Amino acid sequence: MSRIGKQPVPVPQGVDVAIDGGTIKVKGTNGELSWAWHPRIGVEYDADKRQVIVTRPNDQRQSRALHGLTRSLIENMVDGVQKHFEKRLEIQGVGYNATLAGQVLQLSVGYANTVRIPVPENVICEVPAPTQIVVKSMDKQACGQLAADIRSVRPPEPYKGKGIRYAGEHVRRKAGKALAGGGK
């Protein structure tokens, strides 16, 4: 039995869960999320105990894999409608910065043109400082995807450390040519 899948998902007060056919809808203070799970997996909501129970029909490989995945995704939905998921990014490099114009994030990171990234409707993007970006969303996947898209514009390079990185990310630095050889 899956260690993650067999645990019920607790539903706190202020969060409403509705199951309709193969779709689960979770509504909270931040909004509403819905998701259609794989038909092989069973999902039930116990209103008395306020918990969602995920079951699988057999021990086949795909069923075992979907069991824990389904439970984790439902837990992320319950967490997301209560409190936004958040990713913080830092920009490092001389002249590198970010600005927000409506729902478009503009990045000046050493290219000839400014890179423009549209921000999806269900994601909140903030630029508290020109070298900091905060991505928030109640959908964990959408939050992480936008943060990864922003980082992929200019990933941190190992020689000078310039680029866009997650807050707290350690970039392994390399010695340049002048320090590596020691020849002439």
Molecular structure report:
By secondary structure, the protein is α+β, with helices and mostly antiparallel strands. It has two domains: 74 residues, Ribosomal protein L6 (Outer Surface Protein A, domain 3), CATH 3.90.930; 82 residues, Ribosomal protein L6 (Outer Surface Protein A, domain 3, Alpha-Beta Complex), CATH 3.90.930.12. Helices cover 22% and strands 36% of the residues. The chain has a four-stranded antiparallel beta sheet with strand order 11-12-7-13, covered by helices on one side. It has a three-stranded antiparallel beta sheet with strand order 1-6-5, with helices on one face. The longest helix has 22 residues. The protein starts with 8 loop residues before the first strand and ends with a helix.
Category from helices, strands and their pairing: alpha+beta
Helicity level: 10-25%
Overall strand count = 13
How far apart, in Å, are the first and last alpha carbons? 64 Å
What labels would you give this structure?
184 residues; alpha+beta; Outer Surface Protein A, domain 3; 2 domains; 4-stranded antiparallel beta sheet; 3-stranded antiparallel beta sheet; 3 helices
In short:
This protein has 184 residues and is an alpha+beta fold.
Task: Note the topology.
Layout: E1 9-10, E2 16-20, E3 23-27, E4 32-36, E5 42-46, E6 51-55, H1 61-82, E7 85-92, E8 97-101, E9 104-108, E10 115-118, E11 123-129, E12 132-137, H2 140-153, E13 163-166, H3 177-180
Antiparallel strand pairs: 1-6, 2-3, 3-4, 5-6, 7-12, 7-13, 8-9, 9-10, 11-12
